[in-house]
């Protein structure tokens, strides 16, 4: 392969790099444990209700956690402040540093439902919505509508202009897998103004933050 030197009056050739005896199995063998070395595997953990106490965070730090993700999409600011304070104390106790990644609200379209805040300031929906296959569910972009069992207001005001009859709309619990019991697939049957009338393609129990 000719290189930059050709313009200077001489030819250059790219050097080939290869391993004469490469054993790919060596790449997946665990290394010998030696004290004083950095953690080989870096753990980045999302913090929530089950991982916000000093004791739990200390155990996570000792297990190799090097960074935490604080999801500002869900949970009150008081909860996140308390979690970060607990993390700070856990770092002092363990004498280990930990990076903090703040995940801010993105472009998720959410179903607006009232929620209750527990003693730890973590929000919860006390009444799950049980949806049966074939049931009619209406998504509405009306700004002042309150959610009911079969009419769900959404946060994006132009959604009714984006979908068409026959489209499939997925609604699930925030950060769900798409295959769990809180995942719902809707088929759009018609659009009436700000209302998107849909038919449920499967049964689901809708709980938590719905996006």
From TrEMBL:
A molecular function (GO) term: magnesium ion binding
Family matches, as InterPro entries: Pyr_Knase (IPR001697), Pyrv/PenolPyrv_kinase-like_dom (IPR015813), Pyrv_kinase-like_dom_sf (IPR040442), Pyrv_Knase_brl (IPR015793), Pyrv_Knase_insert_dom_sf (IPR015806)
Gene3D superfamilies referenced in this protein's UniProt entry, alphabetically: Phosphoenolpyruvate-binding domains (3.20.20.60), PK beta-barrel domain-like (2.40.33.10)
Listed cofactors: K(+)
Pathway note: Carbohydrate degradation; glycolysis; pyruvate from D-glyceraldehyde 3-phosphate: step 5/5
Pfam families in alphabetical order: PK (PF00224)
This protein's name: pyruvate kinase
Sequence similarity: Belongs to the pyruvate kinase family.
Entry EC number(s): 2.7.1.40
All copies of domain Pyruvate kinase barrel, residue ranges: 41-204
Keyword Transferase carried by entry: yes
Superkingdom of the organism of origin: Eukaryota
Signal sequence annotation: none
């Amino acid at each position: 392969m000719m290189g930059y030197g050709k313009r200077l009056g001489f030819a250059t050739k790219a050097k080939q790099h290869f391993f004469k005896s490469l054993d790919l199995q060596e790449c997946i063998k665990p290394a010998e444990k030696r004290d004083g070395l950095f953690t080989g595997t870096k753990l980045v953990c999302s913090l929530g209700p089950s991982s916000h106490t000093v004791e739990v965070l200390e155990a996570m730090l000792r297990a190799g956690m090097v960074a935490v993700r604080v999801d500002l999409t869900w949970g009150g600011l008081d909860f996140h402040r308390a979690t970060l304070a607990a993390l700070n104390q856990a770092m002092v106790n363990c004498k280990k540093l930990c990076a903090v990644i703040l995940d801010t609200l993105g472009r998720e379209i959410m179903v607006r439902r009232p929620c209750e805040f527990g003693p730890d300031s973590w929000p919860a929906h006390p009444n799950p919505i049980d949806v049966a296959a074939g049931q009619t569910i209406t998504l509405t972009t009306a700004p002042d509508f309150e959610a009911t069992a079969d009419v769900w207001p959404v946060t994006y005001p132009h959604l009714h202009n984006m979908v068409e009859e026959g489209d499939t709309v997925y609604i699930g619990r925030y950060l769900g897998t798409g295959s769990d019991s809180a995942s719902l697939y809707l088929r759009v049957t018609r659009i009436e103004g700000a209302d998107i009338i849909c038919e449920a393609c499967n049964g689901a129990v809708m709980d938590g933050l719905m996006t």
